[in-house]
Amino acid sequence: MPLRNDAVPAPGRARARVTATSLTWCATLAVAALLLLGAIVPILYAAVRSVPLYESGGSFTLDNYTAFLSDGAFWAALRNTALLAVLTAVPSILIGTALAVLVTRTNMPGRSLIGALLLVPLLFPGLGATLGWVSMYAPSGYVSTWCADTFGGVPWNLYSIPGMALVSLERTVPMVYLLARARLSTLDSSIEDAALSAGAGPARILRTITLPMMRPSLLLAGVLISMMVFESLGLPLLLGTSSGIETVSTYIYNNWTTSADRQGLVSAAASTLLLIVTLMMLVRGRLEGDSKRFVTSSGKPKARRPLKLGVAGPVMSALCLGWVALAILMPTFGLLMTAVTQIFSPLISPWEVLTTHNFTTVFDSPSFVRSIRNSIVVAVVGAVVSTVALTIAALVAHRSEFRLRRVLPPLLLFPRAMPGIVVGMGLFWAFVIADPSGWVRASIWGIMIAFVVRNTAVGYAAIESTLLSISNELDGAARTCGAGWLRTGRTIVIPLLRPALGACFVLMFVALLNDYDPAIFLMTSGNEVIGLTMLRQWLAGFAGPVAALGVIQMLITAVVLGSGRLLFGVKAHV
Q1: Residue 32 needs a FRET pair 20 to 30 A away by CA distance; which of 138, 223, 329, 414 works?
Q2: What is the pTM of this model?
Q3: Which burial class, exposed, middle or buried, applies to 273 when counting CB atoms under 10 A from its CB (0-12, 13-18, 19+)?
Q4: 330: number of Cβ within 10 Å
């Protein structure tokens, strides 16, 4: 059979294709490095300058580091953050692991329903969930007021470090549950079956076999929770400020907003926070590597025989449902009732104070409406742009011959470990240097860039997992027929990635809609976003409209995730 003339490209066309491919590879790496370094290098530079970067002159100095390291408030904030991390991580690991074991390894009644309800907090933004906790469990909250009237007092105080840790459990327990459940799915149940056949009871099997095999995942969960606590701003700012409790993130925020001449100190503190979180990320990577030593399954997994709890089954089910009711359903109900009542209190029947005034306030306020519109624009445009860019990056990283392709995944995954407040500050200084006019910094596009940089790992993970499951033989067949890298990706690989690309768009949309930490240093009048508007209005004392805005944000999130589940199979734990 004669070879077709178009099967082998002409030399000139081949050189053009190679040049275009090489430029694509290099440009992808350059953009990824620029975005990451653009959020880090300016902070490091501002930390060693004697004047802010927007002022001329100045000199190299280490006084900024000396100033904050000698500041007793910083060390108090560091101690508070470490204590908060411990008080959050330990109960989260205990509760999340217990729930995962009960749902996946036992015959507990209602385990499927409980497993689904545990994931509800992952669907909704953190500020809305926090407001729900406050409306129910704060000193003047619905449940607290009822308990005080009935029993003469309440044993909790949300405006304390243990109280903040209690609120954090709503989101950290589901995370531990997912990690523990994933770990349990890789454990060969034949080991547990052998112990059961040897006469060991369910409690002993769990204590001596199941839990020790889960140790790497539990340690990993502890590191992840600590990272979340160190980077968290909204929760300690809302609950700790009134009690004079500062964490590292609120120390940075308060010093930035209260004194313009302490920006060098703030940059030095932010670079130190970045170092702490980076070290935690290295520990996380080490723990993930160690987990391979605990693999027990190979080949086709055997059917699991659930451990029988006997009469303890209904009791465990009741305890799990009690946790779901108190930690998930009650705060969600509190947020909804705060949004639709004039005052939410057990002393007044909610039916007598129902109102739509809070929603009317939202839609009549230009700043609230602007926040909703800007957030949707940022989420849509950012999700589209990032999906296209991350698709190209994933193809370069896993489907190219680029010599530096292994550098791309760390560049794309690392920003997610960076505290949002650090990303926002770094890009603020980057915009000061690159755009002296301030147009980008004062527009929603600057906020969109900050959100996209911080959440690249979310979309990249959705694409990468599917891309790795597509055989390289398809690429080889196309290349054998004369197709170049660009054409192969465009005509073969990308069509196979369509479900993953849809999932990437949905997940990026939700992440960008609900993010707010990086916008703290970039928001001005006119470029407000929902999360930061809620934060500032709540600090000003307007709980009702904030609750209404939180409900609107939750509805948008639920609709988008529901649509993504129907169209692309996107799940909450992706």
Answers
A1: 223
A2: 0.82
A3: buried
A4: 19
